[in-house]
Amino acid sequence: MSTPAPFPSGTILGYPRIGRRRELKKAVEAFWAGSISADELETTAAGLRAATRERLAGLGLGRTDSAIPESFSFYDQVLDTAVTVGAVPTRFASLIQADGTLDLAGYFTLARGEGSSLPLEMTKWFDSNYHYLVPEIGPETVFSLASDRIVRTFDEARAAGFLTRPVIVGPVTFLLLSKPSDAAPAGFSPLSRLDDLLPVYATLLDRLSAAGAEWVQIDEPALVSQSIDTPRAETLGATRFSYETLGRLARRPSIFVSAPYGSLDDALPVLAAAPIEALGLDLVRGAAPDATPNLVADLTDKTLVAGVVDGHNIWRGDLGAALERAEGLRALAARVTISTSTSLLHVPHSVADESALGVELTSWLAFADEKITQVAVLARGLREGRAAVAVELTAASDALAARAAAPGVTSAPVRARTAALTLADFSRGTYEARLAAQDEALALPVLPTTTIGSFPQTSEIRRARARTVRGTLLAEEYRQLMRAEIARVVTLQEEIGLDVLVHGEPERNDMVQYFAENLDGFAVTENGWVQSYGSRCTRPSILWGDVSRPAPITVDWATYAQSLTAKPVKGMLTGPVTILAWSFVRDDQPLGDTARQIALALRDEIGDLEAAGIGIVQVDEPALRELLPLKTKDQADYLDWSVGSFRLATAGVTDATQIHTHLCYSEFGVVLEAIRNLDADVTSIEAARSRMDVVRDIRSQGFDHGIGPGVWDIHSPRVPSVQELVGLLDTALESIPTRQVWVNPDCGLKTRGYTETVESLQNMMAATRSVRARL
Ligand code: GLN
Ligand code: ZN
Residues with beta carbon inside 6 Å of ligand 1? Predict the structure, then answer.
């Protein structure tokens, strides 16, 4: 290599790709619906990439110094990497064209499935709400550079006058995140294919170099995670081998390895010793490299890219402290530059797109664009000295001070209440006493049937809500429409014969936002969308202050439903951990403190429901597992406060009131102990997709409270037959005592249509009756 270009003094690891007004989502969905062509979709995407480059340059990233990352994806960056290296599962072989590539339709088919070919599995991306597609690797996978999209995108930027930085998921992370293909023998490890994969990365680096790329970003987040099954020594060996190999290539761009989402720990010395030019560290979630003195890491021949601007949250933060952190690392490395801790994929585009947050809250926030401005300021501060950016640093610390002192950020009554909590507030009576009291109060049949809460959200319901937001539907008219819907849903459930009814949640736009809108301490955005997976986006609420409940939230709806039927109606709330996990949460106090405040607000709500005659209350915690920290050492503390907050929310009721919870996943085993500690009287859980895997965990580890392993996979419109449902119930009853078993679907029905809902619930009842008859 000739003298390499220096790493840019300020950069970001990635930028949201969905578009300020979700243009990519709309175009991709239009392509799926057949209303635009592949060429039109390509044109829209190229337009978004061009606009992004201009925007990033306008915000202060260099146009021609590799500061702008090419982080666009039509669907997901892990899928892109799989397609780039030719890792297309055999069941999709027919999609591969004569020239060995996939067209856009083929690419999306891997993500969405087709006919009997199931799509790639989807799972959570580290500790974020983003989900990636899981590549499938086996002995039969033939790696080759099957797509040159990365090179073409770089060329596209060049043609527009930019010298950008291509980004790809690194070989170690790619294989660690993959699962063995269907054809792989038992015990096969995708990482065993590293030798065959690396030549493809080598070819790609060669091509990028030939195209003129000066730097390439190789993302290796899997190195910070301990939630990966592969033994650490193997991971470190693979890392060493990969970067020795890639680093020694004759022709390549300078290599920047980034490691977002936590500390590299023992992978740090490995990367420090590798022949790469820059290393990106997450200094927000992770520790500074000098904080672990027993790890010898010599970075004196490298650029240390200091991820000091939080890519994971929406707060403006302490700019002065970030600069100090970066300055403090100067002694360790040849050079220190500024970056975000993670890609900005996890935050919305810009605070400037929000008109209703108010000046004060707005001044405390930084979405993607504002974070880039921060990066530019810090980079300048590092280059030219603190004095050069004194105005910006002062403005940021003033905003922070104003935030700390603002009314609502701390509320004396809320603080007094959490401070006065004692152990007794976290516990109910014994399970035996509760069981007896509930049996008497509820008199339910054996194998009680119920649903998870929501019924289909029809377009009429959504339209009514949209009109209320626009102001063209009066609040009272909206209320009457929702009551009519509740009445319909109650009648339907009675006709079907379910034992425990729900009101159907028609009034909720979203299970978290609905509560955020009704609690103090939260704000909601207009355009604050972030990608959850593919074209799916969520709009997290902003939890900025102490949380309290100004008035009852769900009581009117629940009591109205109960007034229509003699069967018990189950009240329906979202739990503290899930409200936290699916919001942007304040960063100025421990999560556990915030969780307890939400728990107390919910405790009041549950108390009011109980007083109003609701005998069963479900508190959903689908995110309980999702927030589990990546590092094992942090998990006990997390489980302590998360489980504690659920208990605090639910422990205020009498023995006769039955508390349910719902969890959206089937890997019960890892958190079974935590679920047991929730001490809910009944837990419903996803189980149909895994054909009742959860039953095995229960048999081996024990669980003595009520349990409803979902028998109907509601993620697909398919209607399960009565025999199939009988089979699943029999499987459950083989291992779980009959008195514990509840019969319910896997999850809420809000995304389903009425046709399949009615048929499936009827089949579920028929199956239950036939099993009951045999008992
Ligand atoms: N009660 C919620 C519903 O039925 C639960 C949804 C969830 O767990 N994601 O929609
Ligand atoms: Zn669910």
Answer: 452-454, 505, 511, 572, 620, 622, 662, 664, 747-748, 750
